[in-house]
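Below is how a single chain appears once it has passed through the pipeline. First comes the sequence as given, then the structure the pipeline wrote out for it. We keep one example in the README because the format questions we get most often are answered faster by looking than by reading.
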Amino acid sequence: MSDTIRNTPNDSPKAWPFEEARKVVARLAASGKTSALFETGYGPSGLPHIGTFGEVARTTWVRRAFTELTGLPSKLLAFSDDMDGLRKVPDNIPDKDRLTPHLGKPLTQIPDPFGTHDSFGAHNNARLRAFLDSFGFEYEFASSTAYYKAGRFDAALVRVLECHDAIMAATLPTLRAERQATYSPILPIHPHTGIVMQVPLEGIDAVAATVTWKDPATGDRFETSVKGGACKLQWKADWAMRWYALQVDYEMSGKDLIDSVKLSSRLCRILGGQPPEGMTYELFLDQDGQKISKSKGNGLSVDEWLTYAPPESLSQFMYNKPNSAKRLHFDVIPRAVDEYTGNLDKQRAQPDPANPVWHIHGGRLPDHAGSPISFAMLLNLASVVNADSPDMLWGFIHRYVPDASPETQPLLGRLVSHAVAYYRDFVRPEKRYRQPTAMERTALEDLATALGAVGDTSAETIQTLVFDVGKRHPFPDLRSWFAALYQILLGQREGPRFGGFVALYGVPETIALIGAALARPAGAA
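Resulting structure:
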């Protein structure tokens, strides 16, 4: 059984999830509610991506902090806007032409191009649930289609009719002139084609709960009930209506939705509700600095991350500075892994709710220990031995940590496997050795001689020795000395703490590595 981390006074944790949770605490104190509803929204027009996971993870941490502060019940609702009409066919799906005839229909009324579910919306909803479940999130899934058709929004939709003029007055100034001419917050579903109709309304009857509209293609007029899923709302009005109908207490959103949050908050107040507390987080960027899009599929997927690192490292990445923009590319993975293992060691030594590990593991320490070897060190070991299997690394690891095995060190075992995969796909293709200058050659020969004189010893002793050798030679600074070691011996621009690497790899092996580098012909890989 994992150790439970001791609670601390309610006003002491300074981590950002606690700061956010205090907003909800104050909200409930003002409203008199005795439970809190946290929500995350998901637009399933494309395959779920890692940004969706980030929003659910961050909201989960705020919810957990709320529980820690109050002990009150709460729920996280993962809401899918699967009744939205499909505006364009996503780039990253098979057989795109198959979906083109269904443009404009609700996602739950469009065939699944993957052939696994009743609809495209159901397929993407299942993908969302699958990867949230794989991380152990506690949530309740909600389908917009199911809520509309079951009548759960009927009363709120009638309220929208009652407030129609005020909603239009608030919304129209935010639209372009040509959009103002056709805008309606209420979108009837065409009874014959099933398309979500973007048409102006000719009549509104709040008592009968109906709207009247005309099909621009045929001229036919229809009177449609707003109840039972025969209509839906434009998304900003829909967001506001949902906050009002469900009494949502907290929902965060990305920087690109700041204006939408402002408008939806105003609409929620018009309906008579109080918009939720929330946080604006910065966006994830791809390797080119472009916003990650689920339709383009230009970011890392959860599956891709988990090929090269454990899930805890992804959570660590999501936890760090949510108000700062982050590049979400493969090269951020190693640092995230070592940040997680470092924080795990700190948490074991001194439990602290401000430590990301407290949030990542739900206020509990995991059963597994940390790793006695950093991921960066494992990557460099894999690089030197050109590892194509975990077994190639374990021989060196056993010398450094004699009793280590995948069974006794499960996290280390996972890191070894991930390191081999990461080295194979990202490090090896980029290795570029360079020849030493005359001065660097002399320094490397000096280092080999010095290592031969000390034999096997501690990482700290070796690190000091490497420093001393660098100081004896006319490098501009010690950073230049270590850069030379990495580039000449490892074929890469950066590397590990060199003393630790030598202790892991072995002194005789390092001496041989230096000899091989000095003997390498110019231009050799």
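Residues 293-395+411-425 form one domain.

See the next section for the split statistics.
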